[in-house]
């Protein structure tokens, strides 16, 4: 891998040299014919993998009909997807966006407006967690904990930080600061695939209810079935006031949503928020196919392949001293190492396995939902070979 800079493209990404041209399922191919097993899925986006036959057929069909109408007009797919998302999440209404960051921006505006409506306009700050990542637009960036991301663009929104799983600190901070909302990821993605505890999630719900603080769950990476339930927080029987989604929902197309509970579904009035492209016919057609697949057996596939992958990673932990911890649920997993993960990531790239690292020492594993049993076994073997080169001695 190299930090290639293409002519005409801003140098904001460190791209690999390979030029990818096509794929099928959990495999992608380069212009020179090399195949890679995809354990990254476009950073948890391509839930249906690559060149999914039903998805491509539906998109071709939609292209022959209408691609864009604007939100001044109704369309069957937009309304259908909104209804289905609310059914899956227990929410009451959806605002469609083009990305996760836009979904977070919508949630910020709902929280601020809700405070004004109830006569608490002074409650303008927010509480978020150390290690959080909520996006790179100005509001979402304010809630992103990494100082290196935030510092060049200060000043940002006022945010108070709490350590993950510290119930006492969370309760005292919210009572003292009286924020508009608490933002959290039930499983932190960029924060190292770190899962919040059941106790912490339930305590967060309780303290937000007690103090009339909006509880916002960012399920952009962990949601839409990736952890084995539609929302990661559903494993812990916790329902927030707002949920932000993106990534998997569009099956590769740029799409997101901010979902609101019944109490907040009407907070934003006509003209107070909008988007030119959000929730258009094409992306909602893709979301319809994704939801169909999820409801017709794909969720069970995620659970089965997640269990297989988690068991395989645990075996690697038992075998190699380099592995410190296995994290996550379903097909959102992390392998914490005793050294910078980038070294191992680069070795895996040479072995034809696409994977990324997060929080410095964690390999993040987020393959497509359609990955097969044989491909999971193949990926685990490539991981084993790479780890063996760094950790030749077995663990005690």
Could you characterize what this model shows?
The protein has 396 residues and is an alpha/beta fold. The protein has 11 helices and 17 strands. Strand 16 (356-358) and strand 17 (362-365) form a beta hairpin. The two termini are 34 Å apart. The model has no long low-confidence stretch (mean pLDDT 96). The protein has a 7-stranded mixed beta sheet, with helices on both faces. A 4-stranded mixed beta sheet has the order 1-2-3-15. The protein folds into 2 domains: 20-51 and 299-390, Aspartate Aminotransferase, domain 1 (Alpha-Beta Complex), CATH 3.90.1150.10; 55-292, Type I PLP-dependent aspartate aminotransferase-like (Major domain) (Aspartate Aminotransferase, domain 2, 3-Layer(aba) Sandwich).
How confident is the prediction overall: mean pLDDT? 96
Number of domains: 2
**What is the CATH fold-level name of the largest domain?**
Aspartate Aminotransferase, domain 2
Overall geometry comes to globular
Largest sheet: 7 strands, mixed
Strand content: 15-25%
Give start-end ranges of low-pLDDT stretches.
none
Biggest β-sheet: strands ordered side by side in the sheet = 4-12-11-10-7-5-6
Structure annotation, total helices: 11
Number of DSSP-assigned strands: 17
Quickly give the CATH architecture of the largest domain.
3-Layer(aba) Sandwich
Rg calculated over all Cα atoms: 21 Å
Order of helices and strands: EEEHHHEHEHHEHEEEHEEEHEEHEEEH
Share of helix among residues?
25-40%
**Helix-strand category:** alpha/beta
End-to-end distance, in Å? 34 Å
CATH homology superfamily name of the largest domain? Type I PLP-dependent aspartate aminotransferase-like (Major domain)
């Amino acid at each position: 891998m190299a930090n290639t800079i293409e002519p005409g493209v801003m140098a904001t990404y460190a791209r690999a040299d390979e030029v990818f041209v096509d794929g099928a399922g959990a495999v992608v191919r380069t212009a020179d014919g090399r195949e890679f097993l995809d354990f990254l899925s476009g950073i948890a986006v391509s839930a249906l993998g690559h060149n999914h036959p039903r998805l491509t057929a539906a998109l071709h069909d939609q292209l022959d009909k209408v691609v864009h109408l604007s939100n001044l007009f109704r369309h069957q797919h937009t309304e259908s997807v909104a209804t289905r998302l609310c059914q899956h999440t227990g929410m009451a209404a959806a605002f469609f966006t083009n990305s996760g960051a836009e979904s977070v921006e919508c949630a910020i505006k709902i929280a601020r407006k809700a405070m004004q409506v109830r006569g608490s306009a002074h409650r303008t700050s927010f509480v978020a967690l150390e290690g959080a990542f909520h996006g790179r637009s100005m509001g979402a960036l304010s809630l992103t904990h990494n100082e290196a991301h935030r510092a060049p663009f200060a000043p940002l929104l006022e945010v108070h930080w709490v350590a993950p799983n510290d119930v006492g600190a969370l309760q005292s901070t919210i009572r003292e600061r009286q924020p508009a909302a608490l933002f959290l990821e039930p499983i932190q993605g960029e924060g190292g695939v770190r899962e919040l505890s059941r106790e912490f999630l339930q305590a967060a719900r309780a303290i937000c209810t007690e103090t009339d603080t909006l509880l916002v769950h960012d399920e952009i990476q962990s949601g839409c079935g990736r952890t084995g339930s539609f929302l990661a927080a559903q494993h812990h029987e916790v329902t927030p006031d707002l949920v932000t989604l993106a990534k998997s929902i569009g099956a590769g197309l740029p799409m997101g949503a901010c979902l609101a509970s019944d109490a907040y579904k009407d907070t934003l009035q006509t003209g107070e928020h909008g988007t030119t492209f959000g929730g258009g016919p094409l992306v909602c057609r893709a979301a319809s196919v994704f939801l169909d697949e999820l409801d017709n057996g794909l969720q069970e596939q995620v659970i089965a392949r997640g269990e297989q992958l988690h068991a395989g990673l645990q075996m690697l932990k038992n075998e190699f001293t380099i592995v410190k911890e296995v994290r996550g649920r379903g097909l959102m997993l992390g392998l914490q190492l005793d050294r910078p993960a980038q070294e191992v990531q680069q070795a895996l790239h040479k072995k034809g396995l696409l994977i990324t690292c997060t929080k410095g020492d964690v390999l993040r594993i987020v393959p497509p939902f359609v990955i097969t049993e044989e491909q999971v076994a193949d990926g685990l073997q490539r991981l084993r070979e790479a780890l063996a080169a760094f950790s030749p001695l077995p663990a005690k």
